[in-house]
Amino acid sequence: MVSVRNVGKRFGGRWILRGLEFDLAAGQSLVVLGKNGSGKSTLLKLLASLLPPSEGEVRYAFPSLRTDIGYASVDLALYPQLTAREHLSFCGRVRGCSDRADELLDFVGLAHAKTTAASQLSSGMKARLKLAIALQPKPKLLLLDEPGATLDAEGRELIGRVTESQLQAGCLVIATNEPQERSHATHELQLVI
Amino acid sequence: MSSNWSSEIRAILWKEFAGELRSRTGIVTGGLFSFATIVTVATALYNKDANQSELRDVCASQIWTIILFAAILTLPRTFLAEEDQGTSDLLRLTARPHAIFWGKAIFNLIQIAVLCAIVAVLYVGLTGLRVPHVLLFAGTLLAGGAAITGVVTSCGAIASRAANRTLLAGAISLPLVIGPCQWGVTGLRSAMGGGFPQDGWMAVVGLSAYALLTLIVAPWIYATIWKG
């Protein structure tokens, strides 16, 4: 589903990542490990096409990145004035897919906060909403950057359920150092500074 | 799974309206600036006849100066705010650049039309200017507003990923709006009886062409920057 060929990323004169090569097929999950600053988030942004690689290329076996990639990260910001439901409605309309707002908000445990503006959500609730946005198009590739970082125990269980179901639908990449999240990996990639 | 441009553009437009109506940043910034400037001008012209030929020319250029600065304060924000608040990645993940550009450009065109209408009514009302050619006056404001929107929106979009984006957007907009402002002054002067209406209509045609050109070219430049 995803093929990474000799990928490198440089910021200014400093190489963050270099010479990365791997393939990820349906039903496989990759856990990216590494210290802070080792390039875990950068790798996920490259896979999400949010950053262009400085060298090499990322190939996808699906046509539309907007509807086949789901990405959730602590870095990803939400529109402060829009409610949780409006975020899903907006993303569904621009992606051209069903918004599944009620279904997804129930699934991530935000049924009680459908009409709450993003600026009023706690960091854990924002993480759940980002997860809902990532899952909305039923992506073939799901990218989760430190998914449990701001979540409580229930939220971490939710991540476990998401990773299990994603492996039936496609493949998964998680950047994490959490032992619980590592348990879902079929493959591991250790990045070093 | 089907997607079409008009639905995407309407979604972006809806998001802009929802954000603006709830935060009122643009309305307050542009509106207060325009109101304060017009009241200052009206006070300075108190007991003077604004319809004298010299004053009329100054009034025509003042109207455009007010609209231009209000536009520069408010319109580029549609693009710059996405980077400032960090939501550009969410857009990049879900929407196509042409749809984003057009959604935001249409929102800006609506904003400038409202701004031009308010500025014109207040200015004419408070200074007592006579406008014998109302249609030409309205046409000049609409076409000039569209030309300024085309330039300012495009510059906001082009500068959106730069580190000093706000400064850069203003700096690259200013030289590009001098031409449209000159045509705008010609159009308004003619509409207020200070020149031939034909000259005014020629200015409207020039402004419309300028608006069209910027709004056709800019989405392609924006899409290229987006990919980078």
Structural summary, described in words:
The complex is a heterodimer of chains A (193) and B (228). Chain A contains seven helices and eight strands; from the N terminus they run βββαβαβαααβαβαβ. Chain A is an alpha/beta fold and 193 residues long. Chain A has a domain of 133 residues: Rossmann fold. The radius of gyration of chain A is 16 Å and the shape is globular. Chain B has one domain. By secondary structure, chain B is mainly α. Chain B contains nine helices and no strands. The mean pLDDT of chain B is 90. Chain B starts with a helix and ends with a helix. Chains A and B meet through α3 of A and α1 and α5 of B.
Quickly describe the structure.
The complex is a heterodimer of chains A (193) and B (228). Helices cover 34% and strands 27% of the residues of chain A. Chain A is of the alpha/beta class and 193 residues long.
How are the SSEs placed, and which strands pair?
The complex is a heterodimer of chains A (193) and B (228).
Chain A: E1 2-11, E2 14-24, E3 29-34, H1 40-47, E4 55-60, H2 65-68, E5 69-73, H3 84-95, H4 101-107, H5 123-135, E6 141-145, H6 153-169, E7 171-175, H7 179-182, E8 187-191
Parallel strand pairs in A: 3-7, 3-8, 5-6, 6-7
Antiparallel strand pairs in A: 1-2, 1-4
Helix pairs in contact in A: 4-5
Chain B: H1 5-23, H2 25-44, H3 53-74, H4 77-84, H5 88-94, H6 97-127, H7 134-159, H8 165-191, H9 197-227
Helix pairs in contact in B: 1-6, 2-3, 2-6, 3-6, 3-7, 3-8, 4-7, 6-7, 6-9, 7-8, 7-9, 8-9
Give short descriptive properties of this protein.
heterodimer, A: 193 residues, Rossmann fold, five-stranded parallel β-sheet, three-stranded antiparallel β-sheet, 7 helices, B: 228 residues, mainly alpha, 0% strand
Overall pLDDT of chain A: 92
DSSP strand content of chain A: 25-35%
The profile of the biggest β sheet of chain A is: 5 strands, parallel
Q: Please give the largest β-sheet of chain B.
A: none
Terminal CA distance of chain A: 28 Å
Element-by-element helix/strand order of chain B: HHHHHHHHH
Number of helices of chain A: 7
CATH class of the domain at 2-83 and 141-191 in chain A, named Alpha Beta
Average pLDDT of chain B works out at 90
Secondary structure: number of strands of chain A: 8
How large is the share of residues in beta strands of chain B?
under 5%
Form type of chain A: globular
CATH homology superfamily name of the domain at 2-83 and 141-191 in chain A? P-loop containing nucleotide triphosphate hydrolases
Helix percent band of chain A: 25-40%
**What's the β-strand tally of chain B?**
0
Q: CATH fold name of the domain at 2-83 and 141-191 in chain A, please? A: Rossmann fold
